Amino acid sequence: MSTNSPSSCVVTGGARGIGRGIAELMVARGHRVVIGDLDGRAAAATAAEIGAVAGLAQDVRDPSSHRLVVEEAVRHGELSAWFNNAGVGDDGALADLSEEQVRRLVEVNLLGTTWGTRAALAAFGAAGGDVVNIASLAGLGPVPGYSMYAATKAAVVSLSTSVNAETPRRVRVHALCPDGVDTAMLAAQDPSGLGSQLVYSGGPILDVSDVAAAAVALVGSRRVVRAVPGWRGGVVRGSALAPGLMQHAAGLFAAQGRRAMKRR
């Protein structure tokens, strides 16, 4: 394929929120974007609205769904970027989560990202490409109230760093770790829960556009892990060095978060 030929791109969970924001930016960059989403109608509608080449129903828990998305993408150009954005955000202490919630968190957030990464690596051409995995700041340190969600995102960060070290230099794997983002996922969480209160304690909630821009900026870079905002990433990484302190500090941060939520 000529180097002047258009390249294709896949965004999972791309019908709304961060995924839609990423897809819009990649379309603006000239990529032939394929959107996958559990809601196939929403994926098709979003694709039509933003100028993506296709919007498909995709359940990221199913490895075959990633292969079908690859088949569609390579019809439009050599695959050069893949964004594993699809995720779920069930909040709550581990003891309070149902077995179904635990299983869904692992299967969507971790296995979905795993299958997507494998599909992308197998489909990249001679020019290589970028896999950008949307993790979370919660994956960088202890976050009570988000224990299972944080565990899956920590695994995504670990997966990304390890796979990046396995791949040839022409292929890059990244993990983006944003703080709380103004999405339907955050809005659906329990405002009285410890996890939500800790999210709101960290300063302004991020806009989708800011996170999408950070994700797209990783394409072509050698940076493997990026936290957004960077200072908050430093705080969370610091807490990981002394996780026992979080037990004592969580109440103070939660109170700060409750005050922030009342001001919204």
Automatic annotation (TrEMBL):
SUPFAM superfamilies: NAD(P)-binding Rossmann-fold domains. InterPro entries: KR_dom, NAD(P)-bd_dom_sf, SDR_fam. Keywords: Oxidoreductase. The keyword Oxidoreductase applies. It holds the Pfam family adh_short. Signal peptide: none annotated. CDD domains: SDR_c. Residues 7-179 form the Ketoreductase domain. Belongs to the short-chain dehydrogenases/reductases (SDR) family. PANTHER family: 3-OXOACYL-[ACYL-CARRIER-PROTEIN] REDUCTASE, SHORT-CHAIN DEHYDROGENASES/REDUCTASES FAMILY MEMBER. This is SDR family oxidoreductase. It comes from Nocardioides cavernae.
